[in-house]
Fold:
Amino acid sequence: MSANVERAVNAFKEQIDASTAAFFSSCVHCGLCAEACLFYLETGDPKYTPIHKLEPLRRVWWSSYTLFGRLASLIGLAPKVTDDLLKDWKELVYDSCSMCGRCSMVCPVGNDITGMIRKEREGMIAAGHAPDGLKGASSRAIKIGSPMGVTLKAVKAQIGHLEADTGMTIPVNVEGAEYLVLMSSMEIMNYPEYLEAIARIFEAAGASWTIASDAFEATNSGIQIGASDIARELVMRIVAAAERLKVKTVISPECGHAYTALRWEGPNLIGRPFPFKARHILEVLDEFRADGRLQTEGFEEDRLTFHDPCQIVRRGGVIDEPRRLIDMVAKDFVEMDDNGRYNWCCGAGGGVSAIEEAHDLKLTAFLKKKKQLDAVKPEKLMTACANCRIQLEEGMEETGMDIPVIGLTETLAEHLKTPETAKG
Amino acid sequence: MTAVDFLAFTRGPLFDVALIIFIAGLAIRFVEILVLGRRRDFSEPRRGGFGSGLRTMFSRTLPETGTMKRAPTTVVAGWVFHIGFLVTLLLFVPHIEMFQAVLGFGWPGLPTPIIDFAGILAMVAMVVVLINRLRNPVMRFLSGFGDYLPWLLTFLPLITGWLVFHRLLLPYPAMLGLHILSVELLMILFPFTKLMHTFTAFLARYYTGAAFGRKGVQS
Structure:
């Protein structure tokens, strides 16, 4: 066994637990996971069947943790994990899986296939078989502090523009603030309206907040590439800043996987519960709404639909919050056919957007969303994830569609009722 | 060996051996799954996972509507087979007598014409399932010996049982002996094939239901 393969096998073994064993024991190859996967449905290629993407992990489970598998490997009959196998599976494990979790929702025997893909990626990167795009993003995240290479200087420049334009002060490193606000690189680079929206909404709500100069980035390439050590380091930066500034709540931005990374994986990566709450921005805004601290006026007149970011909704549990918030500002809101926990991915989550080789495939996968959109014909498409947003915009441009994509948070800010009382 | 000797052998010593392998095999498989354990989850749950896990153990029996639309053959044939098979296995009076002998308790059965019908349904569904597996590009791509063997192991008891019931092909003692032999083959190989999903699927559903449930997602 080569050193590469040995590292992969050890990482797989580290990941395999009772649930993995129950899942592999239960699969009867019914093929229904393929019918839930946009990469299979839009290409028609059976190799994209979700459970098939797990063959390397399955081999290690069978040959190491089952009686027959162990006997078979003793006499050399068990199918082996080889470097070539891992190389061949790279496209299946990364390019063609956005970890959207739809297969995990429909598997009749209840297998969390997506959860196993997450585990499998640990072995793939351990053997070096991860896409260069994700390796680059992870290395920039560790060295520079952001997968897109966004520096504190860029954040400060954005803050400077914002303060000059609006006359508001953007709090940085304020100890004792209630909320620590994080951003995604995409928001810093492409969607500065997010930070402005936060500033205006939080001021109106009378909520104290801050940005941390050493932990402004919410995204986590570590969980996309499947490297727990990188993921841990990135989460730890946020935890350290939150503990230093003594905030009560850390807010994950309009980004899908950043929420999973912080909210669900974060405490497990660092091996202890957080001493603060981790919330998605939509959860916080919905709390403001419930407390009467978020008040809006006027409505979007356009026919509007909402694209559910998988990691926030199906993998995150923030399902009703966006709908309650949309109702505040939309008169003509239509749901797409499969929505909420059964939504279809934009096609570029789970790191796919960072993989150059996956460019054509992710646009093919987008066709699923296009069909959904064609069915409801919205005039505006709303979402709550900067990564989904880029993919939706690119996909629509490629396919000649012309529907503006807007963020939920910024739309709420546009309809913010002028506060009657001064900031508390 | 006469047909009667053969029947006595399958009913007696061979059945005991099959039963021991079946039970020991199940125990081994469950132990090798459960000893792997699961790591503690430090994330703050939105709600408890236990109830959601229990719910998913049953809710996954019904397909999501889109799945039903995209793969009706797989869903419907699968359903008909499972129901037909379970009715035949669990509600046929001679089978209940066998369970009574092994378990020490029994339950009421159904009239034989209903069992006959359920058995035929199960077999027809199994043929559809097999054709579907051979024709559907995804299933054909995924399938190998490990998928076709369990099919055969399941089909043999159904067809031999039906032949015994209708006194067809072979004299009664020989056919019944073959039927019991096919069941013993099924029992012996059950723990080491995909037939294990009969039990592990509930465990898998629980794990996933609980994991999604603590995130606040009913799966």
